[in-house]
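Subject: Predicted fold for S-adenosyl-L-methionine-dependent methyltransferase, 319 residues

User T.R. writes:
Posting the sequence so we have a shared reference for the thread.
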Amino acid sequence: MSETFPTRESSRSTTGGDTAAASTRQADAEGVAGGVGLTALLVAAARAIETHRHDSLAQDVYAEHFVRAAPACADWPVRIGQVPEGDDNPLWGRFARYFGLRTRVLDDFVLGSVLDGFRQVVLLGAGLDTRAFRLDLPSDCVVFEIDRAGVLAFKHQVLTDLSAAPRVKRVPVPVDLRADWVTALTSTGFDPAVPTVWLAEGLLFYLPSAAETYLIDAVDRLTTGGGALAFEAKLEKDLLAYRDSAIYTATREQIGIDLLDLFDLGPRPDSAAHLTAKGWSTSKRTPFDFTRRHGRGPLPEPNDALEGNRWVFARKPGP
Ligand SMILES: C[S@@+](CC[C@H](N)C(=O)[O-])C[C@H]1O[C@@H](n2cnc3c(N)ncnc32)[C@H](O)[C@@H]1O
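User M.O. replies:
I've generated the structure tokens; pasting them so everyone works from the same file.
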């Protein structure tokens, strides 16, 4: 399969090639200690809190172990009872519940896809996702986890220390999604002819627009046997307009993660339309649709950083 992928030079308009490559190496060395890698721990902490709720939407018994193992988040809560304002805290209340709801919805999406016969799962920007360990997947299923090497190394260490065993074959693929990840994936045994479910959960808005377009094209090309893709998009034209929203402010002030600094703020491609043009059927939902369906989760509020969030579900028929 011949590849044209956005080089770091072409995908980062404001940085020179050597500088961009050096900053990628530096980000990778950080693992989960900082930069975008730390956002994987934010989601893990949210999943830990969700797991311990009496009305939990999703269960991840590994999540709190990641939080406890990382010096960067030694003082983060893993239960809502450890947060003085409880659910009134915009970060550990509403935002964490958002991640809990997203986990549940995408768990259901993966489980529904394997019921339909899909046997490969590819987690793009897998972070500390433990679906290979906790979902009841068929034994002949393979889960590929793509993230940067430093993040996957931290994950491996924590899971090894817990003697955790995946329920199915699990293949970590350490690679930067701004580089040629297709070669990395296909060289680990991924088979485009096997019906595949792809997840890009909390990922695309960190990537430069060219890398997102490349990713969507690649998912289409690598789905020759039929497949499904779920991804999260943000529709806001100007994300900075939400800088003072409760969620972004709390995340910045309480744990020092400035999400708007990590997001790629350039114009985004319309990936749902792109997939439709390639013959996929797509549906776009708001998170609030699922809050209503499950009877719990975030609801709209004024100056809402979640207002433009959409969860897109796409299907490509098999041959
Ligand atoms: C918010 S976390 C979400 C992790 C996981 N999908 C989840 O929902 O728990 C974003 C993840 O995307 C990964 N990521 C961001 N940019 C990336 C890139 N250029 N290449 C590979 N992974 C990347 C980060 O390392 C991080 O693990």
